[in-house]
Amino acid sequence: MSSKSLILCLLAPLVAGFNLSVPAPTGPFAVGTTVLEITDYSRLDPFAPTPQPRKLAVSLFYPTEKVSQNTTSCHKSNQCTRAIQLPPHTAAALESQTGVPTGILHNIITQACQDAPVTQPLRPLLLFNPGRGASRLIYSDSLIEIASYGFTLASVDHPYESNVVEYPDGSVVYGLQLDESLSTILKLIDIRAADLRSVLNAFSNSTVTDKIPGYGPLTKFKTDKVGVFGHSLGGATALQVVANDTRFAAGLNVDGSFWGAEQQVGTEAPFMVIAAEGHNRTSDESWAATWPNIRGFKREATVKGTEHNSFTDTGLFVEMLGELGGGVPANIPIPIGTIKGTRITALQRALVTSFFKRSLDGENDGLLDGAAAEEWPEVSFQQ
Ligand SMILES: *[C@@H]1O[C@H](CO)[C@@H](O)[C@H](O)[C@H]1NC(C)=O
Ligand SMILES: *[C@@H]1O[C@H](CO)[C@@H](O)[C@H](O)[C@H]1NC(C)=O
Ligand SMILES: *[C@@H]1O[C@H](CO)[C@@H](O)[C@H](O)[C@H]1NC(C)=O
Ligand SMILES: *[C@@H]1O[C@H](CO)[C@@H](O)[C@H](O)[C@H]1NC(C)=O
Ligand SMILES: *[C@@H]1O[C@H](CO)[C@@H](O)[C@H](O)[C@H]1NC(C)=O
Question: Which keywords has UniProt assigned to this entry (predicted)?
């Protein structure tokens, strides 16, 4: 028996029937989640092997009623079934990418309640899209943290680009091997931007919204003025979308370079960049080229101790694995800097919510003007 399979045998008793629990979000709201399949019949999928409409998998995260253990009632409606973070194929893909033993990552449970009803939205809708090739599901905990402050988020995968997309019906689409050329990257940004518009359009279609638990006249999402953000290539897409479609009224780019004409087109809309340490307008020409063309409110926030992949849930996964013991590697070989997972999750939430409250709700908490320097000493701001 090889030593690797020996380790897996020893792990087996530990692996059976356990959960890795993500830490609770820090905001005042309980968070619900549901997964939607959204098909845009007006667009053919640019990658599918046979002609078919573009079909997207979207996770919603939203404030829901405070869920309590009510021992005097058998009423199911306010009980929380915590949602699993990574469905089986997504967990397996991440395990093979990182060397985490098989059967571990599927046991991560988020702090969001599966299919809990949406309540009246307090804050605007935000659309999110992941980094190149990444699953939207490795950002869910960061988005749940934001939702716990009253925001509703729609997190969107880009099938055939994301390494794996699992639909609610269990079907799976794997990512294609795409080249690194500029023309491919520009094509991906266009497809991503069209995907985000398809999702926003779908929220005006009752066939789609009827599938959202609790959705109705009082809980409707406002779709004429939303925010958009993304990590890496998703951040470049955010600029493309605000430049192109005025319903997207504010945008935020988490540590992504810009690539195409959006650099020159720019925008009047409020726009923000969150940067890993060492990523700035000197080290990234695309940021230098774009910045003068961001003509409305703008901020660049740099976070000490971070790397490009700090802005995912990887840091939280590392913290959870560290508590597991039993021979499970307590690390994931993806560079995430020195900042702790719980810390960057809270810090990113503070920046994202401050920006969107300010630019969509006209509420300024002063954070982006440096008002909370004692609470968040890792951040510095440039205009
Ligand atoms: C528990 O459920 C009962 C019956 O539905 C309700 O009257 C009561 O207010 C609930 N208590 C709490 C703490 O939610
Ligand atoms: C793990 O979490 C899932 C989803 O919430 C739940 O159904 C299951 O009972 C939990 N298992 C254990 C061993 O706690
Ligand atoms: C609404 O969604 C349904 C189901 O996806 C689709 O059949 C229908 O064409 C959509 N309606 C519009 C106006 O897009
Ligand atoms: C927005 O994008 C669509 C699709 O790529 C394109 O047809 C349209 O011309 C763009 N509009 C603007 C204002 O850039
Ligand atoms: C920009 O980043 C580079 C490293 O990538 C660093 O040497 C430089 O000091 C940074 N500039 C500023 C103004 O922070």
Answer: Hydrolase, Lipid degradation, Lipid metabolism, Signal
Q: Read off φ and ψ for residue 273, nearest 5 degrees.
A: -125, 135
- Tell me the whole-structure pTM to 2 decimals: 0.90
**Rounded Cα–Cα distance for residues 120 and 116 (Å):** 13
Ligand nearest to the CA of 237: 4
Question: What domains can you pick out in the chain, each with its CATH number?
Answer: 3-382 (3.40.50.1820)
Q: What is the mean pLDDT of residues 263-280?
A: 97
Residue to mutate (ligand 5; options 277, 279, 283, 284; most atoms within 8 A of CB): 283
Q: Is the CB of 278 under 6 A from ligand 5?
A: yes
Instruction: Give me the amino acid identity at 247.
Output: R
Cα dihedral sign, 65-70-74-79: positive
pLDDT digits (tens, 9 = 90+) for 67-117: 555 445 444 445 789 999 999 999 999 999 998 989 999 999 999 999 999
Angstrom distance (rounded) from CA 284 to CA 102: 38
Q: Is the pLDDT assigned to residue 17 strictly greater than 70?
A: no
Percent of the chain at pLDDT > 90 equals 84
Q: How far is the CA of 244 from the centre of ligand 4 (A)?
A: 6
